[in-house]
Every structure is written in structure tokens, then in C-alpha cells.
Prior knowledge:
The chain is α/β, with parallel strands linked by helices.
Amino acid sequence: MNCSVVVPVYRGAATLVPLVERLGKILPIAAEDFEVVLVNDGSLDNSWEVISQLATRFSWVRGVSLMRNYGQDNATLCGILEARYDIIATLDDDLQHHPEELPTLLSKLAEGYDVVYGVPRVRRQSWWKSTLAAAVKWVISSVMGVRTIRDISSYRAFRGELKPAFAVRSGPDVQVDVLLSWATTRFATVEIEEAPRAAGSSNYDLYKLIKVAL
């Protein structure tokens, strides 16, 4: 199995080094060949400098820098289109998604599914954000029309053969999960541990969550 790991980066300078170092320990166990694609989504900190240093330090790290901030799904989509390998995984840059859980997603994918989501056992959010996030996920799941999935996550693994579905996108409002649902109905979830944010705060406030839902 060959695997591309896509990480959208926004103000992630403080967490990128430990994230990549941890991926560097688990990926040789989980895949034969692998790469990590870090997509700088117009960060206002020195994320791009850190990405450039990591790409120099590790031959399997590649960096992409967008001209401005386009949003998490657009940055993720950019990394997906850049991915080289037949299995693609995506995760956040804040270390809430444990890289060590990646083999759990890949193992479930090997059972014959096309997309697998890592769903946290315990939500580490305020009650209002958890409630609104659940509503947003319900909306997206309903649009996807996949009855077996009622919980989605940005920690996902899927088969690269689904990438042609992304060619039909239009407009600036991209939802990666909806695009995936245009290519397959074989979805699954696995429970994973989720850590508190290692640095900074969430970039999704009330306004952004409502905008995503709409």
C-alpha cells in the first residue's frame, strides 16, 4: 500500500514539526511508499517557512502555498489533486488527530470500503460548538445521501481512484465529503482518540460553522 497524507495548514507553525515527525514514525509501518503534502492556506504566521524547512529535511514532504486563504476544504482539495499515491489520507494540522491512528483507518479501508472516517470517541469542544458541528455534519451527510454515514470527519482515508469525482466541482464553496459521495457509496467509520489542541484555537467560530451549513 502506498499512501499520500494531505494536511491543510492554517496558522500551524507551532504544531507542524511534531506532526511531521510523528507521521515519519508511523508511515513506514503503515505503507510501502508514502508522502506528506502540506498545503499552506494563506497562513498569517510563518507556517510556510516551517513547511519549507520540513521539505528540505524530509524527502517525503512536499509543500504547496496558496496565494491567499481559501478555506480548509479548498486547501484539502488542492492537496488531494497533488497526491501521487493510490491511498490518500487527510488530517488536521493541530495535533488533535493522532497520526498513530492512521493504521486503524487504513485497516478498515482494506476491508473493501472506499472511504473511512476517523470519528472521535470523546468530543473535546464546548457544548454549543459540539451541537452546531453535529448539525453541520448532519446537513452534509444528508446532502451526501449515504444512509450508513451520519458522522464525518476531516480525518479520513480513501482510494485515489475516486479523484475523478473532483473534476466536476464548480464554484468556490467546496465540500470534499460531498464530492466523495459522487464517486462511491462504500463509506465506513472507525472510532479514534482525539487530543486537545496542542496550540492556538479553532479557526471555526459560530459564523463559519453556520456558513458551512448553509
